[in-house]
Amino acid sequence: MDTWPDLWTTPPVERRLTQDVVHVWRLRFEGWASRVDECRSLLSLAERGRADRFRSEKDRIQHVLTHAVLRLLLGRYLALEPKQVRFAIGPRGKPEIAPALNAAGLRFNVSHTRGLALLAFTRGRDVGVDVETARFVTGADDIAARLFSSRESACFRALPDDQKQAAFLNCWTRREAYLKATGEGIAESPDQIEVSFAPGEPARLLSLRGDPNAAAAWHLQELVPGPEYVAALAVKGHARTVVRWDATV
Questions:
Q1: What CATH number is associated with residue 56?
Q2: Number of compact structural domains in the chain
Q3: 125-162 pLDDT per residue, tens
Q4: Single pTM value for the model
Q5: 120 lies in a domain?
Q6: Are 66 and 54 contacting, i.e. CB atoms less than 8 angstroms apart?
Q7: 36, 28, 102, 99: which is closest to 68 by C-alpha?
Q8: Has residue 81 been placed in a domain?
Q9: How far is Cα of residue 60 from the mean position of the Cα atoms in its chain?
Q10: What angle, rounded to 10 degrees, do the helices at 161-182 and 140-147 form?
Q11: By residue range, what is the domain housing residue 78?
């Protein structure tokens, strides 16, 4: 039986984050199931309150683990205790580190889906990440017509039926990664963003507001955190190295 090539590795003790490097961490919830109480103790009262509002216990646990691991990792990067990390809200409502704690210009973004979260970190530039469970999307053509650009929607309709599901999730995660990096909403700019998405086609941001040169200022990359997931990373500027690590902090 073929084995799936897993590119995600155990992190070294030294995790230096320079401006031309992006760190992406894979958090598999099942591996942290015994640490839920410990993780909950790291959260702020507001974070605990948000977790408690989820009706599903699984959703509550995933929220707790994601935000606790975010605090653990930020604490390592900032040389702070996890509970000392404070957040602020950026101009477009995107969470960021409180400026008084962030002389290094650390930026982050988080995405989670069933069973797994991805956490991306870089310095001095916008970063976004999105992960989705590989699944059948009902009404993909209609959704693409509403939320993809006109050219993306036309390209999507022209694909063979057996490629459409993979193509839809490629397009969705790549667009979302960019939108999360900038703090824009999906509905704000369906026709302003165009990405590559055909199965087997390298991830690229093709155009921003009709300008290919503006798109070239971004690095867009497919991430494969597991055979049952589809994911993408967007970062402003050129990423010389994207390092993938398992969250074993």
A1: 3.90.470.20
A2: 1
A3: 999 999 999 999 999 999 999 999 999 999 999 999 99
A4: 0.93
A5: yes
A6: no
A7: 36
A8: yes
A9: 19
A10: 40
A11: 29-124
Q: Tell me, yes or no, whether 143 lies in a domain.
A: no
Which parts of the chain have pLDDT scores under 70? 1-5, 185-189, 249
Write the CB contacts of 65 (distance below 8 Å, at least 6 apart in sequence): 27, 29, 32, 35, 36, 39, 117
Tokens 């973004």, located at residue: 109
The pLDDT score that the predictor gives to residue 2 is: 44
* SS3 of 166-221: HHHHHHHHHHHHHHHHHCCCHHHCCCCEEECCCCCCCCCEEEECCEHHHHCCEEEE
Coil vs helix vs strand at 144: helix
Rounded Cα–Cα distance for residues 243 and 247 (Å): 12
Asked, for residue 107, whether it belongs to a domain, the answer is yes
pLDDT at 217: 93
**Planar angle of CA 50, 51, 55, nearest 5 degrees:** 105
